[in-house]
Inverse folding.
């Protein structure tokens, strides 16, 4: 099975700039939807990236904690907050997109058609699986170098308070400051069967729909709606300020 994807593995290894064992890297790129669709005899000898993702998640937490402790003179509270931000699904998915990991993923036909290559949860998990493969191939020192390389910008911005992920809180502070009201979230639709279901939520401000969000959980959809509304309002405020000047 791995021979069919030898060129894909080589390209990925070259693009990411880290030497990784071929079998481990192949496994890191195998989504469960892919392993579930292949022939039975191959399936028995093929493993998805879920176990590597579990390992990579733990390695990521350790690496970020080590980087924050040894490179930055910040308090424990700030270290905890920064680690939560940079190790979040949103940031990991963003980094995964920057590194074009989605183009290399091995997905099942159904997942491919439903946009799996752009799905944040899949991309974040794949990045953690790749980190798990790096750790098993090269150890903790190389893993830490890789983590610092891909997350340095986000760590710096998070420490400076320039990375915002709790958009619900940010939007509430903005609307209360401007209008003296809180946003109202309304579940508009739930589709699919768990664990492949998703939610669509609207956020209303002053009884008017400001944005709609989509997520694999209701909370995720609310955050997505809040993010869209918050950014839309910030852009409008900046444009208004520019016109006044």
């Amino acid at each position: 099975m791995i021979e069919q994807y030898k060129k894909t593995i080589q390209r990925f290894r070259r693009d990411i700039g880290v030497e990784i064992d071929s079998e481990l890297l192949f496994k890191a790129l195998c989504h469960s939807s892919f392993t579930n669709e292949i022939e039975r005899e191959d399936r028995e000898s093929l493993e998805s990236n879920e176990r590597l993702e579990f390992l990579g998640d733990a390695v990521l937490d350790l690496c970020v904690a080590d980087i924050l402790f040894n490179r930055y003179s910040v308090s424990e509270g700030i270290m905890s907050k920064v680690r939560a931000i940079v190790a979040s699904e949103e940031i990991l998915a963003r980094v995964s997109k920057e590194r074009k990991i989605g183009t290399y993923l091995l997905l099942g036909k159904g997942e491919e058609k439903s946009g799996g290559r752009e799905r944040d949860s899949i991309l974040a998990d794949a990045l953690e699986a790749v980190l798990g493969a790096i750790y098993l191939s090269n150890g903790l020192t190389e893993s830490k170098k890789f983590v610092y390389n891909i997350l340095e910008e986000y760590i710096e911005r998070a420490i400076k308070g320039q990375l915002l992920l709790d958009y619900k809180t940010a939007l509430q502070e903005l609307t209360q400051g401007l209008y003296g009201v809180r946003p109202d979230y309304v579940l508009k639709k739930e589709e699919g069967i768990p664990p492949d279901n998703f939610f669509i939520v609207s956020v209303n401000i002053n009884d008017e729909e400001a944005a709609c969000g989509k997520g694999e959980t209701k909370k995720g959809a609310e955050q997505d709606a809040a993010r869209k509304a918050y950014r839309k309002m910030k852009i409008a405020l900046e444009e208004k300020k520019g016109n006044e000047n």
Remarks:
- The mean pLDDT is 88.
